[in-house]
Amino acid sequence: MSLVIHRSGTVDRQRQPVARALSVVTSRLWWLCPAFLGLMALWAIFPDFFAPMEPGAMNPRHRLLGPFDTSPEGRHLAGTGTLGADLFSEMVAGARLTLFIAVVATAIGTVVGVLIGMLAGYFQGWVDRFLMRLTEAQTAMPMFLVAILLLSMLGPSVTILIIVLPALVWPIFARVVRAETMRVRESTYIEAAVATGCATPTVLVRHVLPNVTPRILVLVVIEVGHVMLAEAGLSFLGVGVQPPDTTWGLLISTGRPLLTVAWWLTILPGVLLGVTVLCLNLLARRFETRAGAAG
Amino acid sequence: MNETLLEVRDLRVGFRTRRGLVQAVDGVSYSLGRGEALGIVGESGSGKTVSSLAMLRLFGLFDHVEISGEIIFEGRDLLALSERKMQSIRGKEIGMVFQDPLTSLNPVMSVGDQVAESIVMHTGRTPAQARERVVELLERVGIPDPEQRYHDRPHSFSGGMRQRIMVAIAVACEPKLLIADEPTTALDVTVQAQILKLLDDLRREMGMAMVMITHDFGVVAATCDKVLVMYAAQPMEECSVEHLFQRANHPYTDGLLRLVPRFERRQHHRLHPIEGQPPELTIEQPGCVFAPRCEVATDICHIERPAMFRLGPGHASACHLADERAARVTVPDRPWEEIR
Known about the structure:
Largest sheet of chain B: 8 strands, mixed
Number of helices of chain A: 12
Distance between the termini of chain B: 40 Å
Structural class of chain A: mainly alpha
Order of helices and strands of chain A: HHHEEHHHHHHHHH
Radius of gyration of chain A: 23 Å
Distance between the termini of chain A: 34 Å
Oligomer: heterodimer
Helix content of chain B: 25-40%
Shape of chain A: elongated
Strand content of chain A: under 5%
Strand order of the largest sheet of chain A: 1-2
CATH topology of the largest domain in chain B: Rossmann fold
Number of strands of chain B: 12
Shape of chain B: globular
Largest sheet of chain A: 2 strands, antiparallel
CATH superfamily of the largest domain in chain B: P-loop containing nucleotide triphosphate hydrolases
CATH architecture of the largest domain in chain B: 3-Layer(aba) Sandwich
Largest interface: A-B, 23 and 32 residues
Structural class of chain B: alpha/beta
Strand order of the largest sheet of chain B: 6-7-8-3-9-10-12-11
CATH class of the largest domain in chain B: Alpha Beta
Strand content of chain B: 15-25%
């Protein structure tokens, strides 16, 4: 892959396959991302409709069938697992908890981070110093290890996951929102709002927050993917979601010992997770460039 | 008219910075009657904006500000009020129009909602009830089709239109005092005249007093009853508008007036800029702040800071030459024509 620099000094993207593919996806095929994510959301909401077979139904006579193999029950699009359960149905069923944990944990992280970031950026002074040190302390703490510790001590549970995972994302929100708030608060319209008699909470909610929101939205989309990967990691390590509940991370984990025998058990849920996170990132990127062009 | 609405006594505003205390306003005093219009004139950094921000206490919680003096508005000292009381004065009793209309409206909120905000906050009306009044106000300040444009965002309005909306916000609750901080500086000349006319008309209609901050004597002449000239954070001269153009006393005022281009002058008549630069506000110098640039400065000007000498009703000047003990100089009728 070589860069061709034109006389104008611009890098010729046509010669870079990755960059080219990305730019095609972000410019012309971007709608594939929301379409795919929408499909995943539908999986999560109506799993029964999309799952061809009963998820988790054991059928030892059809163990470890490869993708597209058929059994008397029908065609197994993604093969079957050690106990003969249809992997495609399991992936559909796993969408619900995977997305639920990612969305709820990100939502909590967003609320906490935005609140802290706005207060720090608006008030500055010691409030800022205190809240930012807090944020740095949180960032410095290896949350992944803390999560493993907590989950192994208290026993794995979805509730604890939802409490622990936001800690991974709120410092990011706090920092970005603080920077944006500092920019916005210098605007004359904030001064004008104060001059018309707005109390500080009104200024923050009605004037600062709406002007910070575009950046928050972009970040939310990225961070949902981030949280999804973290949950998959924890589930993979065995301290996350436990059977009979299932998530994509857990599917990857259960397939791992059989990687040499039945590659699809690990690879296919992995690809599904990867594509979902990629779609989230591409969508965020599009939002960002669009917002940049409009602003 | 002669009942006092606002009285500022010895206002001092300083900002603590790493390089020391910057005295942005240093001993300003004036009073303003109901319905009266005062122009505060001075060059950039002379403290005219800061003195008006002090009136509404528009400094951040953690800005390092030192304020002293008194701002008596209807018998209450604004500098001593609680923040909550202050909020009920901002926008309701004192309205403010800012310099740059392009940045002083919230870009993500409809203009109607922004005008309504102040009415809802201060009169307890519901947004639906306020709507009628908002449309009326938008119409009054000259927005065409106010009904249709209620939900438009600021970006779809021109600079002049946005300034009209700012004016609508400032006068929405019929305040007793309107502070206009260089309201026409960012606008082009034809629009400037319209905005000034609008402010002047509204002031008369609503019986508002006005503090007009500007560096343009034309604006002062068009809209104000009296003038306060400021230089380097200090008041230089206070007088009525008629006196300003005929009997300006202070050498600084005089220097500024000589910079106003005049059509009736001889051709090739050059403008005479005031030599030098305004002083740094961190360094406290003895004597008159203007002395280093003053053409008629005497020894005492570098030693002692002049008081405000009364020259007549409503006319005072901070210049040693205005002291009645000073050697009489016949004040020419048109100083800018003859001093050179």
